[in-house]
């Protein structure tokens, strides 16, 4: 009997060891998290896009697991149709596109609709900053506005903006003050909003005597979209609060932002 007990105990140890070894092997074999594949589209007029290109992608990459591809082929043109977006093949290579450009004189309806619908149909997220909000606005197409969830044609003169957070529980707004005053910035007047648009923060216009959202999200088809009209000046772009906000926007649009505003496991700073 004693010998049988000893043999059984030995068997348990062997099985337990094998199980633990197998578990360790499974853990070791687990594939690493793939970085978010992000495209940064920039260029056009009226803004310091060269300086901002050196600020935004590196800052986001320091806070989140993101690998960037930069497209600055537009140079200073406000009416160029960049080669990358002349079809929708680019969607297979990226999880999100961050638009920080000013293509205000692009009016080609099929081109604009192809770009906006590529996001809608593929689910590739979009993060849209300042000048990109006013891109394509002179076209008869409103496809870009529908992607953003809002359309704007004009903005106020630059002045410090008293920003009020209206959705403090949204994960993108975690860490953003309930109220804060910016450096002189342009407040965009939103002429139209779509049903999927959710305001996150707003400011009062001294010109229209109305409040206007300046940070918001939208859902368009399969795509999540984060938009802020802040960012006319490079000093605004390089503000740590702004850069953290944009980073959370990138994470949210790709589904990697937890409810507490922190990156999902594997998607924090590398």
Automatic annotation (TrEMBL):
The lineage of its organism: Bacteria, Pseudomonadati, Acidobacteriota, Vicinamibacteria, Vicinamibacterales. This is Trehalose utilization. It comes from Luteitalea pratensis. Residues 90-253 form the ThuA-like domain. Keywords: Signal. Pfam families: ThuA. PANTHER family: GALACTOSE-BINDING DOMAIN-LIKE SUPERFAMILY PROTEIN (PTHR40469:SF2), SECRETED GLYCOSYL HYDROLASE (PTHR40469). Transmembrane segments: none annotated. Residues 1-18 form the signal peptide. The keyword Aminoacyl-tRNA synthetase does not apply. It comes from the Bacteria. InterPro entries: Class_I_gatase-like (IPR029062), ThuA-like (IPR029010).
């Amino acid at each position: 009997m004693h010998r049988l007990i000893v043999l059984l105990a030995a068997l348990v140890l062997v099985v337990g060891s094998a199980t633990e070894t197998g578990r360790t092997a499974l853990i070791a074999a687990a594939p690493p998290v793939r970085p978010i594949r992000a495209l940064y589209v920039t260029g056009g007029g009226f803004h310091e896009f060269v300086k901002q290109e050196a600020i935004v992608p590196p800052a986001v990459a320091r806070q989140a697991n993101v690998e960037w591809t930069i497209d600055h082929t537009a140079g200073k043109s406000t009416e160029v149709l960049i080669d990358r977006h002349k079809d929708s093949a680019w969607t297979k290579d990226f999880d999100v596109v961050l638009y920080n450009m000013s293509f205000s004189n692009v009016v080609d309806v099929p081109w604009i609709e192809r770009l906006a619908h590529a996001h809608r149909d593929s689910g590739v997220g979009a993060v849209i900053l300042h000048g990109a909000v006013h891109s394509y606005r002179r076209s008869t197409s409103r496809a870009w506005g529908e992607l953003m969830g809002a359309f704007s044609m004009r903005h106020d003169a630059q002045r410090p903006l008293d920003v009020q957070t209206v959705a403090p529980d949204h994960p993108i707004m975690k860490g953003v003050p309930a109220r804060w005053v910016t450096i002189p910035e342009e407040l965009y007047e939103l002429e139209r909003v779509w049903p999927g648009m959710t305001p996150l923060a707003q400011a009062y216009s001294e010109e229209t005597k109305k409040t206007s959202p300046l940070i918001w999200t939208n859902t368009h088809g399969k795509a999540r979209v984060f938009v802020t009209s802040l960012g006319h000046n490079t000093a605004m772009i390089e503000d740590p609060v702004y850069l953290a906000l944009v980073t959370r926007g990138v994470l949210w649009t790709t589904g990697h932002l937890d409810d507490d505003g922190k990156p999902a496991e594997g998607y924090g700073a590398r």
